[in-house]
Amino acid sequence: MSTATQTSLALEMPSDTYLNSSYGVKSWFLTGDHKRIAMMYVVSISLMFLLGGVFASLVRLELLTPASDLFQSDTYNKLFTMHGVVMIFGFLVPSIPVTIGNFLIPIMIGARDLAFPKINLASWYIYIIGMAFMLAAIISGGVDTGWTFYTPLSTQYLTTHVMFTAIGILIAGFSSIFTGLNFIVTVHRMRAPGMTWFRLPLFVWSNYAASIIMVLGTPVLAITLILVALERGLHIGIFNPALGGDPVLFQHMFWFYSHPAVYIMILPGFGVISEIIPCFARKRIFGYSAIAFSSIAIAVFGFLVWAHHMFIAGISTYSALIFSFVTFLVAIPSAIKVFNWTATLYKGSIHFDTPMLYALAFIGLFTIGGLTGLFLGAIGVDMHVTATYFVVAHFHYVMVGGMVTAYLGGLHFWWPKITGRMYPEAPAKLAALITFIGFNLTFFPQFILGYLGMPRRYHSYPEEFQVLNVLSSAGASILAVGFILPLLYFAWSLKYGEVAGDNPWQATGLEWETTSPPPTHNFHEVPVVTTEPYAYGEPEEA
Amino acid sequence: MLPQYFPLFPESASTMSTRVDALYFFILGITIFFTMLVGLLILVFATKYRKEKHPVPVQIHGSIPLEIFWTLVPLGIAMVIFAWGAVLFFQEMHPPKSAMDIYGVGKQWMWKFQHPGGQREINNLHVPVGKAVRMTLISQDVLHSFYVPAFRAQMDVIPGRYTTVWFEATKPGTYHLFCNQYCGTKHSGMVGEVTAMSPDDYQEWLRGAGAFGSLATEGQKVFASMGCPTCHTGADNARGPNLYNLYGRMVRTEDNRTVLADEGYIRESILKPSSKIVYGYQNIMPTFQGQLNEDEMIQIIEYIKALTYNGQLLQLQTNTQQEPPVNLNKIQQGVDVTKPGTNQNPMPRTSAVPVTEEAAPAPSSTTPARPSAPRQNTPTKPNGSQVEQR
Predict the structure, then answer these.
(1) What is the CA radius of gyration of chain B?
(2) Taking CB atoms and an 8 Å limit, are A461 and B188 in contact across chains?
(3) DSSP character string of A127-154
(4) C-alpha distance from residue A317 to each of A303, A304, B137 (Å)
């Protein structure tokens, strides 16, 4: 696998790309091309991200003062609920797999498309229908269950649009299952000649692991939501003790999906980082198989830790101990990844382009996010900090500091491949810096607030918590700038960006051997793979 | 003062809080160490091997010994944290034997607390310093969570089921009480204060709190008004098991399980009597679902517990200046005080008690009195943890 060369000095946009092969609304909305579907997903999930961001901003605005002055309690409850629902089901769960993954997995393994292009398109439509239900619920008054839908509050006490939202999530879940199924079959069946399992880029490994979770975990969420609907609509007692049900059963079922879902969100992020770091260190990834297997280990162990969300929810002492134990085991594969990424930098030749800035930020933020998980896994400490802002800070460090940072890094990294044009480097670096500063200012104070005992989902709070909350809100406004900037310069670059060429980063990998943007069928000839991935420094490159 | 507006660390006011903080600082140390380690390595590598200084990268595939090293070291650290956290959790889950009981009921959006002496308070909880307090908690509607950050004590409050948490305050003061499980509109208004007082002040407060009657004596009234003594006579041949000395004992069931007779068991036996049938008895008790509110349930439980700790009941009654209404000595001696003709009604202050026939639960009329099936109670042994013998 010879890496693309820098020879094409007079860079021109290729004549035959997936973008200009056909025109018109139908050519997009009825396309089977994974790259076009990925683009449609990029637009849709970005809209959901903006919407979730608006809710987050309103939440932070209210929390500037201890009193409840900006919104009524019910409004506030709806805001944080919709922030969670929109961000998790509308953005984080699909995020990298349906966009970058959709675009790149076939190309990375040398295939013309995913195994089931129509199912891929169907997954987008299903996602849109799911989001339509969710938006309908939001527009018609919102929902205030919290994204966790804990019973019996959600099944009996609330009069908001619980059903609408639940149906939306249920439908969106099938989109996840379709994507996961498609990825698994594609990776098994569509690899190019010579592309053995251990020549797969780590991005493919991590998306493969995430796909396993999507396929196995999402049905349980669907079952749970259907049971909630049965109880709410038909008063069949399942979770509500007043009807003979068990509220803790709901939590078991909910977290059986929702904990592994955390790994659906973060694993593809690991994949992006595993691509960026070797490229900008111009160096092979350190410990390829350790990183690959740790992804699989996370997917497997991730299914066995769900009750660590429920240490004080009325489960037995011994089951709490077992779940705590497995929780500490699942921390290890993540630690292994961090050490391997760091070791990859050793004796590299490090280029500080924007994707690398995001990747380095990711390692730092994810390390903090992961290590603070130790506090929550230790049951004795968890009894104090569970459900406080400590938890909020912890999962935002993983989800935003980790996942969103990786997503942005990936977008910058593959933007030239996707669009054929470069984004402007200076504002991009600035945005990465602003995001990093804004993020830490927003969420670091929340760790302190959490240990002080500030409960999450509080609309008003004791006065002594104000300074930390003001810091957090101030950080959020900086963070917002960091998120809006890329939107602007990405849009600008579509027309005015420099033509990128096939391989602006001198990266390895099949995606860099085809044109930017790639042709509809990805390659003009079926590629034959003869080397390991990340073959930086191979003799033929020099 | 700055800390007043910009606190960095919560107040520490219970015996557990210092222990939780110790583990917290241990993990914090590890977190800082590894964050610094990774951060420094990145900084050093990024400076030392930046492309200007180090244009030709050295290709390294990996190192098995290193992989093993950084798998085992974090694993070892993780196991230490796990074990420490587990030990702490055991302490948090097992209150000292000497702990006093306070009951809490959560409902949208308030806390109701009841002290054994019958003192009630709302969104306020008074506790003595230097004495372990075991909170028995239940919700009347949705999930709540009882959370006192200064005590590092938190437990979910669940409808239909008791949960417990304990703490021992170490210094007098007023501390936040939060509901920490989202419970609807006024979740953030479901807050209160825990006032820790010196034992003397606490006794003073108890006296001034104007209790109507101790929980046990109130429970006795409820017990009688529901017709419970009709079957739970305390006699060997009664239709219902003897409740004397029940609390804290292991009970053998009809299907040969052994269950601990704790608050949850007593509650379940009242609301879902058929779920655990005591060995040698028949499934004849009707459910009292919907007939008792959570407060009354707690009172009955306190009464049944008082049948175990005779002395405690008497002492409580002295606190609330009430005469002992129950002839515990008689029950203790195994005398069937409810048998007609003995003239010794154990619930003399209620009229519902003597009505044996009418108040008898419906199924009992179709069931003959206890057959001669092998059955033995352990009526007089004040041995708190004895497994009931066959």
Answers:
(1) 28
(2) yes
(3) HHHHHHHHHHHHHTT---S-TT--TTII
(4) 20, 17, 17
Instruction: Note the pLDDT tens digit of each residue in A465-490.
Output: 999 999 999 999 999 999 999 999 99
Q: Which tokens in the block code for residue A436?
A: 């990093």
Hey, is the C-beta of B292 within 8 angstroms of any chain A C-beta?
no
| CA angle centred on A394, ends A391 and A400, rounded to 5° | 125
Q: Burial level of A131, CB count in 10 A (0-12/13-18/19+)?
A: buried
Which of B38, B50, B75 has the CB atom closest to A363's CB atom? Answer: B38
Which residues in A lie closer than 8 A to residue B57 (C-beta atoms)?
281-283, 347-349, 536-537
> How far is A212 from B335, CA to CA, in rounded Å?
67
Instruction: Indicate yes or no: CB of B108 within 8 angstroms of CB of A157.
Output: yes
Number of neighbouring beta carbons within 10 Å of residue B130: 14
CA distance B226 to chain A (A): 21
CB B294 within 8 A of CB B213: no
Residue B285: what are its φ and ψ, rounded to 5°?
A: -80, 135
- A313-350 pLDDT tens trace: 989 999 999 999 999 999 999 999 999 999 999 999 99
Using an 8 Å CB-CB cutoff, list chain B residues near A453: 10, 147, 149-150, 176, 178
Pairing mode, strands B110-114 and B120-122: antiparallel
The answer to whether B262 and B157 are in contact (CB under 8 A) is: no
CB of A537 within 8 Å of a chain B CB? The answer is yes
Of B27, B46, B79, the CB nearest to A345: B46
Rounded CA-CA distance B285/B268 in Å is 12
Instruction: Scan for tokens 């830490």, then name that residue.
Output: A440
Burial of B294 from C-beta contacts in 10 A (0-12 / 13-18 / 19+): buried
B301 CB-near residues (< 8 Å, 6+ apart): B219, B263, B266, B267
Residues of chain A with Cβ-Cβ distance to B65 below 8 Å are: none
Note whether A347 contacts B60, CB cutoff 8 Å. Answer: yes
Closest CA to A383 of B106, B148, B193, B80: B148
Hey, is the C-beta of B85 within 8 angstroms of any chain A C-beta? yes
Asked whether the beta carbons of A213 and A264 are under 8 A apart, the reply is: yes
Higher pLDDT, B195 or B236: B195
DSSP structure class, residue B235? S
ipTM of the complex: 0.92
Residue B144, chain A, CB below 8 Å: the answer is: no
Helix (H, G, I), strand (E, B) or coil at A112: coil
Pinpoint the alpha helices (H) of chain B.
2-5, 15-48, 64-93, 199-208, 215-225, 263-271, 294-306, 310-319, 328-332, 362-366
